[in-house]
Design a protein that fits this description.
Chain lengths: 159, 337
């Protein structure tokens, strides 16, 4: 893959990172069951690297806390992500990276749905359908080259 | 009014590592085959009503095994894999051995099905094609490659009595194929359009004149075949049948429906859903064949702890069901009215 050769979005807009989460006393208490919330899910995916820029998905505003819905009791996690440009060819890879990261970090009871923020990509419907098809996602994740690319995105930033 | 029945869990069958994609009953209902992402096929048998693994088939595939299908005679198992091949296992030596591998698909094989005679085999793939294979004296020859779908083909199923094939696809349609008697090539004779997203699975009823399909659009649809010259005036072309959607069951499933099976003994329909629930539907007694009505008579919440991928009625024991899930388990159930 020659994705570093031609940057699609040469000069992406940068966004300010959110403050670190303040851990409350109740959260530190092992005896209190605290449910997953949007902030916790955001923390799992905010530091995923963009496939073509040395920046995180948070810095590029691809993921935002207010576009994450979590219902712990019903095992639902819905994440919307916003490609930096409407014809971004990396959108599937970014969506897969978010999926993989959540798959690995969240308990298996969660039903994870990763979709494009409505109106922000020209192939939104097709991409959403592909990301929601668990059989195609499973097949993609058996492709060792693709898994390597995804692992590079989801690993702790090397920059 | 229909009364609700209940689904009783008989046994959890554990052994697979990771997601179990599919299960298939032996035609006599005495054993069960299952497969999954661990690249193995497990054969389960009941001894003193306790189900145990009697065989593990390995090294047939290098990637996920998506589906297994027992031949009508019960002597062969076909397995469809993401490694782009379909393996045929037979027990001539006493143990199941992989003695034939069907190659040709460009990528993942998603489904495999034997015709009622056992002489034909169909496979389908993400490469959008459906292949028909002729089985003769343990040799398998490709009889046709059909490129009718525009997307990933998810499921192939043969008609229960005739050499008629149906396939379901990511392109939201179901297609019906028949052999052209003149040039002996297989062609798509009808396309069933109504679902608004991926059609994951389908099942014929015992007559083969009705079909049930399930989809990512969260609905179940019942289709009726209208043959050429039908008395109610549905027009047909080239003497081929047309299929009409005569009933849509919506509002029952909350997520993608991955599998469906129409029981040939009882006429009950069972569905496997991404909301972890197994549901059973029954046709109302005063149902009109052209406008049938079905009711949900059972909904087993948390049947599994993750998505239910596959479910099938035992072909010999009325009421017995097997199911398989992302949670790694196969389960045996009994439906009590």
């Amino acid at each position: 893959m020659t994705m570093m050769d031609n940057l699609e979005n040469i000069n992406p807009k940068l966004y300010k990172k959110v403050e670190d989460r303040q851990v409350t006393a109740a959260e530190e208490d092992e005896d209190i069951v605290d449910a997953f919330d949007a902030r916790e899910v955001f923390d799992i995916i905010r530091n995923i690297n963009d496939p073509e820029h040395p920046l995180t998905l948070e810095e590029l505003n691809v993921v935002e806390q207010n576009l994450i819905e979590v219902n712990d009791a019903e095992n639902i996690v819905n994440v919307k992500f916003t490609p930096t440009i409407p014809h971004c060819s990396m959108a599937t890879l970014i969506g897969l990276s978010i999926r993989v990261q959540l798959l690995r970090a969240l308990p298996p009871r969660f039903k994870v749905c990763v979709e494009i923020t409505p109106g922000t990509h020209i192939s939104e419907t097709a991409l959403n359908k592909q990301l929601a098809d668990k059989e195609r996602v499973a097949a993609a994740l058996e492709n060792s080259h693709l898994v390597e690319v995804i692992n590079n995105c989801v690993c702790v930033s090397k920059y | 009014m229909l009364t609700m029945g209940s689904l009783e869990l008989k046994q959890n069958l554990s052994g697979h590592r990771g997601r179990v994609w599919s299960i298939c009953w032996h035609p006599k209902g005495t054993s069960l085959a299952s497969c999954g992402e661990d690249k193995t096929i497990r054969i389960w048998q009941a001894t003193n009503s306790n189900w145990i693994t009697t065989m593990i088939l390995t090294e047939g595939h290098t990637r996920t095994i998506r589906e297994v299908a027992w031949s009508p005679c019960g002597s062969y198992i076909a397995s469809a894999s993401f490694d782009a091949t379909t393996a045929i296992w037979d027990r001539r030596s006493g143990e199941f051995e992989c003695n034939a591998t069907l190659e040709g698909h460009e990528n993942e094989v998603k489904s495999v099905s034997w015709s009622s005679s056992g002489h034909l085999l169909a496979t389908c793939s993400r490469d959008k094609s459906v292949w028909i294979w002729e089985a003769k004296d343990d040799e398998y020859e490709c009889a046709s490659v059909i490129n009718a779908h525009t997307q990933d083909v998810k499921k192939v199923r043969w008609h229960p009595n005739e050499d008629v094939l149906a396939s379901a696809s990511y392109d939201n349609t179901v297609k019906i194929y028949k052999e052209d008697m003149i040039d002996t090539d297989w062609t798509c004779i009808h396309t069933l359009t109504s679902h608004t997203s991926t059609v994951w699975s389908l099942s014929f009823d015992k007559t083969g004149e009705r079909m049930v399909t399930v989809s990512d659009d969260k609905t179940v649809k019942i289709w009726q075949e209208y043959k050429s010259g039908n008395t109610i005036g549905i027009s047909t072309a080239n003497n081929d049948s047309v299929w009409k959607c005569v009933c849509t069951l919506s509002g029952y499933h909350t997520r993608t429906i991955y599998d469906v099976d129409w029981c040939k003994i009882t006429g009950l329909i069972v569905t496997a859903c991404g909301d972890d629930i197994i549901r059973i539907f029954k046709e109302e007694s005063d149902s009109d064949i052209h406008e049938p009505t079905f009711s949900m008579i059972c909904s087993m919440n948390n049947a599994h702890t993750q998505d239910v991928n596959s479910t099938q009625w035992n072909p010999a024991i009325a009421g017995q069901i097997a199911s398989a899930s992302d949670d790694g388990l196969v389960k045996i159930w009994f439906y009590n009215e």
